[in-house]
Design goal:
heterodimer; A: 181 residues; mainly alpha; 2 domains; 3 strands; globular; B: mainly alpha
């Protein structure tokens, strides 16, 4: 089986993550352990080959930080919302399964959007249609079409913000055109 | 001597106490949700989501109490693995639950997946794996 050569630049995020996990578990960030961890990371990445994740080639830190902050705020707000629903509504809660077509067809962005949506309480990815990159989302307390439209807009907004952070240039320009229109 | 000493230690203790109580409250929310929500999918919301915040708060409290910087990377790794795995397991359980009809249709206001699954099931007979994901 011939393997597609992965450039070091493409592999670098994985290697840094492996190195971080290694040193965090040893609780030792001394130079010696960093070097040994880097060695192990390279060996592991070579031996246990995974299909390379196709990165967009850009990462906007200035947009990533506010995104992380709003993500945490949303998680906090929605956690209390679930607590309220569990106590107040309980068995009478009304939900819905909503189809949300995404703009991007890259696996990374569909996965990232699905993860962020699933981590925010109140929405859960039930099914992914990869060919049309449509997410089917189970939303809790979605009682009418207006709620469903709001959920759909939420998901598409999340995807737009992720594209601004790490989408490819093509996706970004398409998004900018859409915003201008 | 300061009549009302507000040392850094006291502040850290207070903050971690608040974090621990809130984290425990999130576990309570999950338990109440599991008991009270009507079907599998709405229970998945309660079972998987409040613990993302609950675990974050409890880990932060642990980090504050131990007061050594090297424990933070371990806690961060623990939380990040939680973030990576929770949506996957929730998705797998939710997907299986939807297909084995563990849900109350009368409690859904809309269901935009039903037609797609029916269509796929019609095309593949009883092949339950041939869902829209593998078309």
């Amino acid at each position: 089986m011939s393997r597609r050569r992965v450039s070091l630049r493409q592999e670098l995020p994985l290697l840094i993550w492996l190195l971080f996990v290694w040193d965090a578990l040893w609780q030792d960030f001394s130079p010696g352990n960093l070097l040994f961890g880097a060695l192990i990371a390279v060996v592991v990445a070579r031996l246990f080959y995974l299909p390379p994740v196709e990165l967009g080639g850009r990462f906007n830190v200035l947009r990533a930080i506010p995104f992380a902050a709003t993500f945490l705020a949303k998680v906090v707000a929605a956690s209390f919302q679930i607590l309220y629903l569990a106590v107040a509504k309980g068995p009478r809660v009304i939900s819905a399964v909503v189809a949300v077509p995404l703009r991007s067809h890259s696996d990374l962005l569909v996965t990232a959007t699905g993860h962020v949506i699933s981590l925010i309480p109140g929405s859960l990815v039930v099914e992914v249609d990869r060919s049309t990159s449509t997410l089917y989302i189970h939303g809790i307390n979605v009682r009418n079409p207006e709620d469903a439209a709001r959920l759909r807009k939420d998901v598409r907004d999340t995807e737009a913000r992720l594209i601004r952070i790490m989408g490819t240039r093509d996706e970004l320009s398409a998004l900018n055109q859409e915003a201008a229109a | 001597m300061n009549p009302e000493p507000l040392s850094a230690d006291a502040v850290i203790d207070a903050v971690s106490a608040v974090f621990m109580v809130l984290g425990a409250l999130m576990s309570l929310a999950a338990a109440i949700g599991l008991l009270r929500f009507p079907d599998l999918m709405s229970r998945m919301h309660a079972a998987t989501k409040p613990q993302v915040l609950g675990l974050f708060l409890l880990l932060a409290a642990v980090g504050l109490q131990l007061r050594t910087w090297w424990v933070w990377p371990v806690l961060a790794v623990a939380w990040i693995f939680q973030l990576l795995t929770v949506p996957v397991s929730a998705h797998m359980v939710g997907r299986a639950g939807y297909r084995t009809k563990h849900l109350h249709r009368e409690l859904l206001s809309t269901d935009e997946l039903e037609a797609v699954v029916q269509q796929a099931a019609g095309r593949h007979g009883f092949d339950d794996d041939g869902g829209p994901a593998e078309r």
